[in-house]
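Anyone? Bumping this.
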Amino acid sequence: MSNAAPAFSGEVEASIRAIRADVARLHGELVRNGLVVWTGGNVSGRVRLSPGGSADLFVIKPSGVSYDDLTPANMILCDLDGNVVAGSEGSDRAPSSDTAAHAYVYRHMPEVGGVVHTHSTFAVAWAARGEEIPCVITAMADEFGGPIPVGPFAIIGDDSIGRGIVDTLTGHRSRAVLMQNHGPFTIGKDAKDAVKAAVMVEDVARTVHHAREAGPLIPIPQEAIDSLYDRYQNVYGQSTDARR
Amino acid sequence: MSNAAPAFSGEVEASIRAIRADVARLHGELVRNGLVVWTGGNVSGRVRLSPGGSADLFVIKPSGVSYDDLTPANMILCDLDGNVVAGSEGSDRAPSSDTAAHAYVYRHMPEVGGVVHTHSTFAVAWAARGEEIPCVITAMADEFGGPIPVGPFAIIGDDSIGRGIVDTLTGHRSRAVLMQNHGPFTIGKDAKDAVKAAVMVEDVARTVHHAREAGPLIPIPQEAIDSLYDRYQNVYGQSTDARR
Amino acid sequence: MSNAAPAFSGEVEASIRAIRADVARLHGELVRNGLVVWTGGNVSGRVRLSPGGSADLFVIKPSGVSYDDLTPANMILCDLDGNVVAGSEGSDRAPSSDTAAHAYVYRHMPEVGGVVHTHSTFAVAWAARGEEIPCVITAMADEFGGPIPVGPFAIIGDDSIGRGIVDTLTGHRSRAVLMQNHGPFTIGKDAKDAVKAAVMVEDVARTVHHAREAGPLIPIPQEAIDSLYDRYQNVYGQSTDARR
Amino acid sequence: MSNAAPAFSGEVEASIRAIRADVARLHGELVRNGLVVWTGGNVSGRVRLSPGGSADLFVIKPSGVSYDDLTPANMILCDLDGNVVAGSEGSDRAPSSDTAAHAYVYRHMPEVGGVVHTHSTFAVAWAARGEEIPCVITAMADEFGGPIPVGPFAIIGDDSIGRGIVDTLTGHRSRAVLMQNHGPFTIGKDAKDAVKAAVMVEDVARTVHHAREAGPLIPIPQEAIDSLYDRYQNVYGQSTDARR
């Protein structure tokens, strides 16, 4: 039977359960930080099953479900082609309409463990002008190591959104890209890290927007940017995932 | 007795009860999304009683009652001329001062199942300039299929607000109209759908406002707008009313 | 003994208790509507004791107390010269630093039953330019009947703030004045009505600010303003104090 | 053993406990007032142990811990060189990455009892232009006695941030400095007073930003600024620490 529940080892099952819980809970951070309205926005997290990552899975939000109704059980498990894992919990629902873009990122960036997409106000405002956000505040140097880049205009329906994200972020310090006329996508080592990037990209998009409204900005010297980024990524925090 | 409670079938009573509950609850979404202050704003929902719709009723908010005090029981049942149904629950209160506009829309647009009016900040800002919101972000193409149009200047007292809404939205993809110097009215297949449109119109009004403050916007090609609108309306979501 | 509790009739005591409760609770509306930070802002309500009003009292917030700690018991009872009523409940604390201005208004405008002062962001922004808010949205015509006027620059220490408020609002439809470089003061028939005016003046200050940022505004014809104001003040609502 | 818990007198222990509780709780005010996102921002409070202050300690937030998880027990006790007090409660965690700047301030300004740092939006916007905030609203004259000054560009890694704060604020009425391209640091007689300054600096940064967007600002005469500052600092409030 093609719709039988997949048989995973207990360890894999536990990992899937943990990531379902994380992804469901992290959607609440999008609301709390004012990044989304109605059912917009989505978070996903990779389930690591294979050394090179090519046989991994990921967990993502269902399509069109209210934020109040998101639970670990209705998160959706997909393979790296973006297909729902037949028979898995929640597999009777459709995944987020942005699933193909998330899948493309996981397929081509094995180090990425989480992906987030929102239509947060100020990040979208820069995207509607196709303008990168200049690195003029130290928090941006810490977190993104330079400007936030713009990705190409691409619409849903093929791989062009995913490819735009991957092409823009590969080799770039930034974990955030502003897809032109569309909005921010962020990546991270896990779903929480990608959500942090989504929160921070809106914060810097808003701050630099207002800063520039009122007059010319003072650039930060490149070597100071490099030093801030290096220190923040490598020195601070309680552990590898708790920074500042 | 002219004030006797109307005698509806059990099925109609159940439908009225369900719509009272929906309309009361959906007013909370206006508050939660920051679209209203004090007692401003109103939501209504059609009670379908007749095939062509001409003998339908609708449920609307009472006038001047605090959002904390709205309950299914104090919602008000009106006929399509905007008259309170004599003897119905809550009929001792006056309905929203915008009732005539809602009634006009239900009378002339039988497919409409919900109407919402707010004075949300950025939508009113575009309305005070009499300027339509250009379609420069993909979320707007998805949801509205093009620009948000402006309706005529019209004041309370006759049918001119309702007529302005109907004339502007008839044959238009947009479910939202910005009535000049006044504010947004939105329609939908039911009250929830109209509330979603009210949330989204403020979201795009704010985002495009900020985008344009800082420089020229990149237009989205018409064929991409068409493709996004078509896909969003027809493909995504868990069912006909859950999209994205 | 000069600090003995005053001897009021039971009816007056009940009225004072009711106004203490109203004034304490209404401060929560300032927070909920984002009009104040820290301990800024103040609401007062008149206790009507005399036909012409000249022997009335009023209840106001204590100075420098956190919004979380405001209770009916720590509101302060003052006479119309702004002196704390000796021996009354809470009279061991100092009243709001704006008490003299409230007292001046009650002394000179016997019809006023409530006064509110805030430093809400956009109302203060217009005040810092000394610029009145033009009446370009229908909600403003409804509520204020025209533009929001600016009062003179005046600082704490004598009657100049109170006099500026009274001189500006006497004979004006608006219940709100923007004191130059300072902020809005609003009046009403009771404390709740003045709080509503404080909420609405910030709402229109913000909306018209953003509207004008992006281009020229369309004026509303004076006769339409007159018609909207007349209707809103006289026709709508459940009773004299519940409008829209 | 170098990691033994330090032996403080009962009185000092009680003082440390009280300041741990204050500092933990006051971080909640940063969230409530919208000054911080994610784990950004930090509050510290001095523990007074010595007459001249040179042997004092201070309590500060741990690095990279979520605001929901801050408790008195995980606040970190440091000496005035910014070193964690070995063996003290919470000393297994790293203190805020801004600890060195706080320590420098406490070392060089013995009257300072609290320090706060945030990346609040509008304060950072002024900082990114290196522009002081002009004193055009009376609330600013009350609270800061004049403009909010800008400090030098300085990055983490040596004493340059702390020195920039101290050099800018020494002899200045303002309790807030905008460190260029970075953000606001505020000081106060205790942690609560510094948090109040952080709240007020963002409030005035936002208000003056919007005021100036729309046209020229009216200056406040210097003698009025002096009078307002003097009165607010010396006359109002319930006691020395409750003002307005």
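Late reply, but here is one note on the structure posted above: The beta strands of chain D are 42-47, 57-60, 76-79, 114-117, 150-151, 176-179, 183-188.
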